[in-house]
Fold each of these.
Amino acid sequence: MTFLSEPEAYELLKVSGISVMPYAFATNVEEAMKKAEEIGYPVVMKIVSPDIVHKSDAGGVMVGLEDDEQIKTAYQRIMENAERAVPGGKHQGVLITPMVKGGVETIIGLGTDPEFGKFIMFGLGGIFVELYKDVSFRMIPVTPNDARDLIDEVSGSALFKGYRGEKSINISPLVDLIVSCSRLLESHNEVLEMDLNPVIIREDGALILDARILTC
Amino acid sequence: MSSDLSCLFNGQSLAVIGATTHPEKLGYQVLKNIIEGGYRGKIYAVNQKGGTVMGLSCYKSLSEIKETPELIVVIVPNKLVPGVIRDAGARGVKAAIVISGGFGESGNNELEQELMEAAKQYNVRIQGPNCQGLTYKPNFLCASWPLVTEAGHISVIAQSGTVGAEVGIRAQQERLGVSAIVSLGNKCDVNELDFLEYFAQDPNTHAIGLYLEGITNGKRFIEMVKNITLHKPVVTLKAGRTAQGRNAVASHTKSLAGKSEVFDGLCKQYGIINAKNITEFYDLLKGFAHIKPSKGKKVLIVTSSGGSGALATDEISEAGLDLVKLAPQVESIVKGSLAAHCVVKNPVDLTGDATAEMYEDIVLKAAQDDNIDTLLVIFGDPYSGVGEAMCRVKDQIKQNLIICYLGGDEVQVQETYIMHKKGIPVFNSPESAVRVIKELAEYGEYLWKNGCQGDWKYRKGEM
């Protein structure tokens, strides 16, 4: 069983018709500055290493980078942190993605139940996801109606309906994304687990900010 | 192969292999229950020692019996079982209920393998081994324990003999009865999916209960169950909700239980009603075997007890159901029929002055309000005559009628029997009644979403 690297995971999502944020892979500081320029500041920088699965825990994520100077510092620190976390690991470089603000943070998970097969999980994301356990499950294939039920069942889905005067958010892109994930699972038997976390739900769509895919 | 199972359920002659005169042994108990359960086919008793058991002269072996029994019930020491199956198969016996234990569950995998091969070679369908037998009331068959004599419409498939037995006992005590109880045992041949398929097409089964620990083929289960729930309710109880529960299961039948959250999601997705414990399991089976899925969530309570009405109100709002206001014209009709001190809101409180006549009158009048989906009628004192009254009411109203009877002691018991005889289940707590109302509403919604509302054919004219 192996984890795909983040760029590989995005590639798999893309070929499955799931739109992902612009991203660029860089293996040195100069390249990182160039790619950040292309994507447009502010950006996020993340370690790409097969030896590091929990990037934040290893100090492998820096957010809100505004200019070349910050890219330089961030690159060095991320590489140092990675080396400290896994000395001699295959730390290949960094991924540059746009910095996203606002919206509701969610998680879409996919897993394999030993008895019933593959399933999709949906929940409100963020760092407390495992504490609140406000998640729901459906087996694949998931229909658009199933996807809506999946979202409705989570108590935090009140946030999409305009909680306490906030604007309500259209959930159609989220429904589409869940259904597409179900299709991806159906056509890729090798995928055992997948975490899209967080997926930010905003007025302009469902934005995947991180992807972890485990294959057999 | 559901057609194959027909020999198990509908055999017209049977032999108990291992019948005995010792009352403490299963070979005695099971034969006794077969006789007292009123089995109408020919019964043979087989015991190596011969003699007489319960008035039946014992054959020393199957080969001594002239006729070939269609079914055998096997209660002999484990090592003898494969031989019994081979002999029986050679004689043309089609099915065997193997109650004997001491196979895979206690590490004797080779013996179980031998049993499976014997069954395959001689084309004998086997329930078990290590099971608690089979009760099937349409064939007056109770090759099991406890003895269930009341015939009803609930069929239970249980991986644990005790869970099935407990449903049978409750249904017997309440005179509601069951259609079938099967215990799976080690599932060396017939498994839960075969039974599920059988009960899905069995006209006498109106609700299927499934107690599961591990499942034989999860994907096949999903394929089957999503078709079944479109025309017949399936209630599940699955052990292994917690990590500790899963360990208990693993060491119990050595099967792995899946994650409960995933199973909960699966149930919602495919219209399965999932119970959390034995009490819910029984209540839901009782409700679903007799009451149709409801059109919506709007409930009106008619009660004589303010306290029970208040408790039911709490349960209803927690369950996400709606307590509706009566339509103004219906409200004034109801008010006009009651003394001034009665409260005509929701709940409609008839107070301690209530009588069976008053209940009948008010429920019929309230039912003129088409907006109501379910009428929850609570009897909170020993009211006589309400059983007959509700039987009359049920035939005249469109809404679902859910009865809750508590605080009524002996009278309650007698009135409950009357309603159960007419297929109106009576629940003895507001929480049980409301739980059933909630699931009936959700099931109705599921059917509607899947294009099945109104296509609820199997019970038409049967109740």
Note: The longest helix of chain B spans residues 430-449.
Amino acid sequence: MLSVIVFLPTAVAAVLLGVPERAGRRVFAAAWIAAALADLGLVAAVWVTREPGAGFTAQEQVPWIPSVGISYHLGVDGLSLPLLAMTAVLFAACAVYSLRETRRVKAHTVLFLGLQTVCLGLFAALDLILFFLFFDLSIVLMYFVIVGWGHGERARPAALRFFLYTFLGSLALLLGFILLALSAQPRTFDIPALVAVNPLAAGGPVPAFALLAIGVGLAVKIPTVPFHTWLPPAHTEASAPGSAVLAGVLLKMGTYGLVRIAMPVLPAAWREYALVAVVVGVLSVVYGALVALAQTDLKRMVAYTSVNHMGYVVLALGATGLARDGQAAVLATTGAVTQMVSHGLITGALFLLTGVLHDRGGTYDTGAWSGLAHRTPRFAGLFAVAAFASLGLPGFSGFVAEFQILAGALGPAPVATAVAATGIVVTAGVFLLALQRVFLGPLRVPGPPGAARPVADLRRTELCAVAPLLVLVTVVGLAPRPLLDAVEPAAAALSSLVTR
Amino acid sequence: MTGQDAAALAPELVLLAAAVLGLLAGSWLPRGRQWLVRAAAAAACVAAVVTAARAAGPARQVFDATYTIDAATTTARVVVPLAALLALWLADATVRGHRRETEFTVLVLLATLGSVLLAGASDLLMLVSAFLLAGVPLYALAGWVGGVDAVAARASEAAMKYYLSGAFAGVTMLAGVTVLYGAGGATGFGPLRAGLGQGPVPVVAVGLVAVLVGLLFEAGAVPAHFWVPDVADGTPVPVAAVVTTLPKVGALIAVYRLLAAAVPVAEVDWPLLVAVVAAASMTLGNLAAFFQDSPQRLLGYSTISQVGYLLMAVAVAGRAVLALPSLLFYLGAYAVTNLGAFAVLAALPVRTLDGHRGLARRHPVLAAALVVCLLGLVGTPPTAVFLGKLTVFTAAVDGGTAWLVVVAVGNTVASVFYYVRWFGPVFGPAGDGPDTCGELDAPARGPATAAVTAAAASVLLGIAGGPLLAALGSG
């Protein structure tokens, strides 16, 4: 079942490769939307039919390279299934949004379908090498997305920087994985097997080094301060769906790696160095928020709020390592996973909406826009909803996540949590300022002064892409129980693994 | 043990016979029919692979233990002829109808034979003969293009440089063999090991280093790498492809065999020596490749860095279970990927990176093959080189040289820069320079299909490499 979910997009892409470009972009778009929706349906089916509790559902394991201990092992639990679902939703939204794409539609569709396989595969992988394979391919495919459909010539250096930074991260990760696999007897790259064996419990320099390698590798991808510098240019230069997937899904790969690999396989080392995660998390929260406040480029601003929001996840996971009290640890971990899902949906919506803005005026500069609320009420409304959700207003998913994170982290790391809470205030300022600049005040649109250029409101495809994301954000915010029911048992299992 | 069993050398004899018969036949065939020789050579390569695969079995030594047939030799017997086959295929556009087509074919066959013999040699004298047989045909091949124009001038300069460094390396190696013989009292690897155990350490070290100079020259590793960029850049693409692929397979297996079988670690700390050479090779190759504008020169430097990664497995020979299987697998993966990249160049006669401007728009399949091969050389999963790198890194960590893996990781990241720099023009808009449009219009069919085949094989080998790796480990 999981293999079908993971490889369905690639199968569709393989078929589409045989279809000539002149078949028309409608054909490609329709195939893509159909594939994305079918995948979403399959993920929903797995969600509904999953076994309750903390174990893995829908496992598949086939020996792949047995002499090295590598197997093709897929499976999902409460940590990965929500992310799998979020990925499927986000890709479906991007498929709908891309109906308006006119540049090299065939290649664009094929590339995104491949990217979807890679993203889904990463969250379903239960083997370190399989995880690494998808991790690496996500970098390669995203590079091509940025270069091929970014904003012109400046996209190339940004994409190269993204490639180099995250590739360095991925190789550090590989080094850590090799250390993990070699420490187990018999050698294996299988994640559940490594978790069960807990091979590096004895302490010493090897677990510390392995955690350092894995931690740095994932931190580049998350990205946390000080490894975040690739993020703003990559986002500014990427297309709207590219940014949505980059921020919505690819960043989660980093934090997911922490909960799936670093914490359960290296629990002792994680506890020992949890304070580092807490500090890095808080720094990311505060720094991301403050730098976002200084941006005049709307997309860059949203990109920095990603650093801020991912910082909460790292903070929560660090607090889990520090926690003496099981309940706080579960709360923080649950909050972290919820935040990953929530941030994926919200930031995906935000990036698609900034894409609309760029589409209308060719610029992200907040100074170039003003008073759009009257002209484009639907756009303004949706952007406001997304902004409020992002700043953590109750009633949206972000609040559920951040509340749990702060409540869970307060006990183990009170000072850090107090500092991190100020980040919420700053983020509120960031979004309110942006809303005020772009949507309120006298009407001003980019272009020569005096020329009254019409600015179209959201088109139907754009609405169909963005609105479902925000509906989900609201549903999770108002009725978080179904999501939390899935996450909590797995979070509890993870917390007990970390504190063992 | 000391069988004089000629049938055991069937793959080598097939190659030799094909070379001799090819040379004779080529002298009589008209220029338009010389492709027959190439076809026969290809058939001989296939025959060599088939006989080698049938002869695979438990390790044994033949001809008074001067030649060993084991997993490593079998790998060379399979990989080198297959690489030669691919090289003959990608050479199609360059050599078909050339007045020295047969010479090209025969020289490739002889170099193939030499490389296989290098891999199997378990006697110092045998090693020297194999070194000569693997090297001398390639010196001639470097100057193969002939003529009096600028191309020929570059090629003869390359051939001259290659030959002179080869002669120097050969003499050094021969001196080293003499010293080792003097110190160990034997030339066969088994008795030599026993003899060297009692020999004077400085003498053994000097002899070993001298022998290694020859083999590292053949492999194109630092510090004997100076010929690589010039030959890779100055010769026609198929020649460059052959020179940077075939001898490496034999030479690296020879280094492994020599160190693991003949030199006690207690005598000379060769693991450290090899590790340092590996680190230097990957680092210098990478740094030099950074701002190259000629794709052939870039690939030339990249092969130097690849040898560095390969030598990592040699550095932990005997100390990690995966050392030999990872080396052998990586060699096969490297051969197919490197040849794939050269095949793309052979299909498009452009001499600058910028010449590939707009390739993705005009020839998406060829561009895809190039991307797969270049990402393969980087070591991106799921290509074969990734699996090679993964196992080599694992072996290196296992063997206690984690620092070398850190160096290799840093180098791999650095290498992304120059491989990806190549993507820029490939995916950029079509250019209108004199070097680009016209020549990009029609990629040669033979090399293009060879490139796509190699790229596909590289991915396939990466995905389905498990059983192969298991077989290499058990053999």
Note: The mean pLDDT of chain A is 92.
